Structure prediction request, 559 residues.
Amino acid sequence: MISARAPLGRIPGTPALLGVGGVGAVLAVLILAAPLLPVAALPHLTPAARALLLASAAALALTTVLAPHRVARWELLATGLGALGGQALLMALTDPLAIAAVLLLIAFGFAARTGARPFVERARGPAFAALLIGLGWTFVQLQGAAWVGRVGALAIALGLACAAGLVPYLAAVDAEEPASSSFVAWTGFFGPALAISLPGRVLPALPASDGAVFGATLVGLGLVNLAWGTIGAWRTASDVEAWRCIGLFLPDGLAASYLALLGIVLVRVPLYLWARPALLGRQPARLNALNVLLAVLLAGAAPFSGFPVRLLVLSAATQTAWPLAIPLVAAMLLGIVYSVRLARALGSHHGWAAVGLWITLGFGLLLGVAPAALRALGGM
Amino acid sequence: MTEAAAVAGAVIAWFGATLLAVADARRGQSLGLLVLTAGLTLATGAAGEPPLAVAALALGGAAAAGLRLRAGRPGWGLFAPGSTPYLVGAIIVVIGAVLVAGSGLGSPAGAARLGALAVTALAAGRILTVDQRWAALGGASALALGLGALGGATALLAGAVVAAGLGAIDGDEAVEAGG
Prediction:
C-alpha cells in the first residue's frame, strides 16, 4: 500500500520547502519566458536546454500526479519545482564559475533533504565537481604553460562526470530513500542539465588542443560508463542497483547525447519511480503485457527512445574510429539481457498508476519515432 | 599601490581559509569566513572588479559568517589536536597555486586570482575531509566565495548569493539525526 507520509503542515521544514518550490517555479518560468520579456538582463536558454526543461516539467507533472508515492504529492511537487528552478538556472548561466557556485548551492540544498545517507556524504560529490569545474575553467583562462590549459580541460570534463554522479563518488542507491531526495533524482535532473549546457559554454573558449582533451575525456568516460553500466546492471544482485546502472549514459555525438538526456528525463527517471513499490517489496515483480513492451523500450529497440540514440552513437563512432563500434555494439546487445529484469521489477500497476506507465511508454515512443522533430526543437 | 593591496588581500584570504580549515568550533569557523571574505574583497577590489559586485561578495561572506554561528560546537576551537595536516595542506596549496598561476603575480588581477585559488582549494579540502554537517556547510560557503572571486561580476554575485544561501541551511546535526 502506498500512502502519504504526513499531512501538510506536520512535516518539518514545510514553509522552507514551499518557499523553495515557489522560488524554483518563478525562476523556471522567468528563464523560460525570457525571450518574450523586455528585460535584456534575464539569462536565456539555448533551444536544447529549453527542450530539456520542458521535458523535465512534463516528467515532474507526470510523476507528481500519477506515480505511486510514499511521500505526499505536494511535497514531491514542491521539491520538483525547486529542482526545475535550479535546472533552469544551471542551463541559463553562461559563466562556468557561476555555474559551479550555483551547483554547490543546489547540491547542499538537495543533501539537506531527509535521506538515508549522511548529509556530508551526499554533498561531497557535487562539491568536488564544483571544485573541478571552477579550477578547470581558471586554468583554461590562464595565459601560462600549455599543460595548464590541458589540465584545465581535463578537470572540467571530470567535473561534468562527477556532477552527473560518476567518478569518484558513485553514490549508493537506497531503495528506502524518498524519491525526492534519491540519487536517481539528482542524476535525472541536474546531471542532464549540466551535460547539455556546460560543454556549450566551455568549448567555444577552449583552444583546439584543450578541446580535444575535453572531448576525448568525455568519450572515454562515456565508453567506460556504458560498459560499467551494462555489466553492472546485468551482474548486480540488487534490482535497485540495476536501476542506477542504466541511467548514466554519456554517448558520443551531440544529437545522441541530447536525445539520450531527454530519454533519461522523460522515460528512465519516471520508470524508476514506478518500479519503487516492487523494489521495496510492497508489490511482487511481474512480467505482464505492458512490462514486455517496457522491456522492449528499455532494451533500446525500435520504435522506442533508445533506438535513434544507438544509431547516432554508432554512426558517430564509426566516423571517428570504427573499432569504437565493437564495444558499443557488445554493450548494446548485453543491454537486452537486463532490460527484461528491469521491466519485471516494475511490477504490476492498476488505475491511474497504469495510465502513467502508458504515458511514459508514449513518451518513449515519441522520442523513438520523431527524433528529427525533437532535434529540430533542440536546434540540432 | 593596487598591486600591494591585491597581494595583501590574497595573503589575508589565504590566512582566513587556513583559519577555517583548522577551526573545530563555530566561532573559529565564522572568524575564518570573515577574514577570507575581507581578503577576497580587498584583492578583487584592487584587481578592478565592479564595486557593486565586490560589495555583494563582502555582504555575502559576512552573512555566511554570521549565519554559521547558529550551529556547531561552541567556542573557537582553533588549532585543535589534528590540525597539523590542514596546516601542512595550507602551505602546499600556496606552493601549488604559485606554480600554476604565479606568473600573474605581477598584476593585481593575478594576485587576486592566486588568493582565490588558495581559498578554493582549502575550502574544498575542508568539505572533503570533515564529517560534521556544520563544518561542511562552512567549507561550502568559503568554496562559493573562492569560486566567485576567481571570475568577473557574474561569478562574484553568484558566489555571494550562494555563500549566503548556504548559510541559511541548518547546520545542526540533530536535523539529520532526526530526519
